[in-house]
Amino acid sequence: MQIYVVKEGDTLARIADIFSVDAEEVAYANQILFPYRLAVGQALLIPEQNQAQEKRIAHVNGYAYPYIRNEVLMETLPYLTDISVFSYGFTTSGDLVPPQTDDSRMIQEAWNHQVTPFLVLTPFDQTGMFNNYLISAITNDQTAQQNLIDQMFAIMEEKGFAGIDIDFEYILPQDRVAYANFVANVRAQAAPKGYPVSVALAPKTSANQKGVLYEGKDYKLLGAAADSVLLMTYEWGYTYGPPMAVAPINKVREVVEYAVTEIPTEKIDLGIPNYGYDWTLPFVQGTSKARTIGNVEAVEIAIENNAQIQFDQTAMSPFFRYEKDGEQHEVWFEDVRSIREKFHLIEEYGLRGMGYWQIMKLFRANWLLLADTFEIVRR
Length: 379
Hints:
single chain; alpha/beta
């Protein structure tokens, strides 16, 4: 497939004529609704009928909440290897806490599409925030830890889960080894049951990187403890930070370059964000808060406000600015150009595949580009 960047005066019909394809197919691939308005600078995926080509096999994961809209779930599942159900919590005594929304439909639909459902384990407290006290309790208390593992396996068998994803964040530095040992313990008990174990890793660029997100995550220990890892290579641009790309490719590359020195490449999945942010300007640290938006929604905002989409050649990410109700805005998001750069990085370093946070909003062009680039592996 090719990518075309919209120019001044372009129409959907004219672009379709250039590539000798059906305009309706271009509209469908890029989720363009009638009357088919376009933004200057918008990147379009052109669905052409190419000759069969050899594709690299890749593992594809997507995170989703159990309340995902059914139409989004059904269209996305054909492009996934596994789906991570977000999320199950636990108490300090190791009692498992299920998500508030029943996940049975999601698990059944996954199996219907030959997609492996993973139980995601998170140390969320009652406010829905990561709690490092819970992490300390479960990683240092063997009785509570075994209780959690037993309850987790029981619910997996009952509901039909076939894998475990451990997503602990803000781990205290003193719990670094205990946490890795916890992951190894889960894997040792999961392996005889045929359950693979993955672990999410904050985006480090060195072993001694400072910060509450990084010091408790030991790439080497966790890479050895788990069957696979997800590099959470996103959130450089985030809700409370200044406007910038969510996953600038130059920063993502730095994380990958470090990760492959500590973890076998066949265990590494690259994290890919399926969202963007809309900031109100001027940005004020401690006060400003960006609004989370979908990638298709970002383009719609540009069209509504007659904004021209630009592309940062360092971050390899699209962005634009606009004014509404007397306020200036800056938007960063993902398009097929930025996604293609991440696919190239996966191929360049021979990584296992990718994991999307998250698949709650449909980004059809991404999935079509993925299927055109990789052969999706099934268990």
